[in-house]
Specification:
The chain is α+β, with helices and mostly antiparallel strands and about 250 residues long. About 20% of the residues lie in helices and about 35% in strands.
């Protein structure tokens, strides 16, 4: 009995279709009245983001002294070793007491739906950048007090080829004081060497950033158990190998 084999062009088409994805995938949630806590849409968005990653770490800014300015050395675990991020730009680390804020910015580390804690946060007065020693494919953060003075956050992602991708955070414009949002992205097709944060109303609308999460390509989990393109490629090579062995046996 003869076994039918897929032509190589069909296998290539299958691999191409599997590898074409909308990239990057963005995770976003906002709460205009969080009362210095972490709950609702931001927490849901963060959980969805972290749920697709493994072995990642969080920069909480607790290792810095209140009043520290850039450059700051950020540290994260990676799939092949540590990832270092060099933060440069305008801003400062600020210590904030529990159950309160500093002109709307507050600490999110350890805060939950029913509690608020003291801690530190990076407060940006304008643009700042983070350059990574190892290219990353996932990045997320909590942002506080964003948009109450009409500012909007933008992120420019520079990939390993030197190309820039501009993304705009859909934060509420002219919203409440001390609002909370989570924003993150996962990209299974590209890796990035730096991220630059922009502020459309820099100098007037100050933003707070906390609990930054970074992941490299090896820390992204396939959604719903679906194999990644690289795994599909290996499976295709296996099929080609099996076809070759079959031909040799017939010879």
């Amino acid at each position: 009995m003869k076994t039918k084999h897929l032509p190589m062009c069909s296998i290539a088409a299958m691999l191409f279709a599997a590898s074409v994805q909308a990239a990057p995938v963005v995770f976003f949630g906002e709460n205009q009245s969080p009362d210095h806590k972490v709950s609702g849409n931001p927490l849901t968005a963060r959980n969805s983001f972290v749920g697709q990653l493994t072995g990642v770490g969080t920069e909480t800014f607790t290792g810095f002294t209140s009043g520290d300015v850039a450059p700051l050395a950020l540290s994260f675990p990676g799939s092949g070793g540590g990832i270092t991020g060099s933060l440069t730009g305008i801003g400062a680390v600020l210590q904030i007491a529990a159950n309160t804020d500093s002109a709307g910015r507050y600490n999110t580390t350890g805060a939950g739906p029913a509690t608020s804690t003291a801690g530190k946060v990076w407060v940006a007065q304008g643009s700042f950048s983070i350059a990574f020693n190892t290219a990353i494919s996932a990045f997320g953060f909590y942002g506080t007090d964003i948009g109450d003075f009409n500012g909007q956050v933008t992120l420019t992602l520079r990939d390993t080829g030197g190309n820039d991708t501009l993304l705009t955070v859909a934060n509420t414009i002219d919203g409440n004081n001390a609002s909370l949002l989570f924003w993150g992205f996962i990209d299974t097709t590209k890796a990035y060497t730096s991220i630059t944060f922009g502020n459309t109303n820099a100098g007037t609308d100050f933003f707070g950033f906390d609990d930054m999460i970074v992941g490299d390509r090896g820390q992204i989990q396939p959604p719903n158990g679906v194999p990644e393109p690289g795994i599909l490629a290996l499976l295709a090579l296996g099929l080609v190998g099996a076809r070759t062995v079959g031909r040799r046996r017939k010879a």
